[in-house]
Amino acid sequence: xxxxxxxxxPFEEADSLCKNCGWGFCSECLVYAFGPKEPPxxxxxxxxxxxxxxxxxxxxxxxxRDIRRAEKEFRRRKKAxxxxxxxxxxxxxxxxIDLDIPPESSPAFDWANEDxxxxxxxxxxxx
Length: 127
Fold this sequence. Notes:
- The protein is built from two helices and four strands.
- The chain is an alpha+beta fold.
- The protein has a domain at about 15-80.
- The chain has a two-stranded antiparallel sheet with strand order 1-2. A two-stranded antiparallel sheet has the order 3-4.
C-alpha cells in the first residue's frame, strides 16, 4: 500500500506514518500519544500499546529501521509538496448587475413589511 494514502481511508491523503506499524494514515486515524513532536500512532497500535486491546495492532509493514527511514522520507516529501492543495472556488459577484431594491415593491411581497405588533428578534416566524 502506498504511503501517500491512508491505510483505512484510501481516498484520504496520509498525514503521517504510524510509529509502530509504519503504515500511512490520515489525521482521523492518528493519535499523538506522546505529544505533537513525537511520531504518532494509528488507532489500532495506540489501543494495543495502552493495553486496552492486545491484539488490535496492525502487522508491521516494515522493520523499525525502515519505518524511521520512511518517516524521514515522508516528511521530506510533505515539505516539498505545494503549500495548499485545496481547490480554489471563484464566485462571480455579478459585475455590472444592479442589486439595489427599488423603493416601490411588488404587492405580492407587502406581507413582509407588515408589523403585527409581536417582537421580532429574527428567530420568530409567524403565519
